[in-house]
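All the exercises in this workshop are built on plain-text protein records. A record pairs a protein's sequence with a compact description of its fold. Read left to right, the backbone structure tokens trace the chain's path through space. Once this layout is familiar, the rest of the handout is easier to follow. Here is such a record, shown just as it appears in the course material:
>
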Amino acid sequence: MSAIAQRYAVALADVAFERKDAGKIRQDLADLAGVFAASADLRNLLANPSVSAESKKSVAAEISKRMGMHTEVRNLMFLLIDHGRTGIVDEIQDAFEAEMNRCAGIVDAIITSAHDLSSPEKLQLAQALEKVTGKKVQAQYKLDPRLIGGATVRIGSTIYDSSVRERLNRLRDEMESQ
């Protein structure tokens, strides 16, 4: 994610908290990113330098009106049009989600296991991660049979690897070094 997208996202998050309307802004920004992703015509129109900023803003205003979009999200669209940055809406949306979670004390964890985890296992793992991080954990679960057993957890740039594959790799390295 780019530093520019991060700056827009942080500014929008600040406004969302200040206005106490974070839920509506979060949803509208996600909807806007969805519209951009779904419509190549819209992306092309807004990226076309031969179309005036006023024409682009007119289209954006109409989209905003039809979607019942929060004023702050509409204003973000206008700002992106003015600076020729409509192509980073999806990055801004991702950065905004991350910023909102950071402010709320939530961390995203990607948990990869060799087999499907049961509900009690997921709960136990989430509680252990919350204890380690001191934050609420929002987990995504993936499967990777190559792990053989155990799991890996990625929280930000930190990886916790308790997979059987990693243990075997460490054992092999230990044996080779002797």
Q: What stands out?
A: The chain has two domains: 3-102, 106-177.
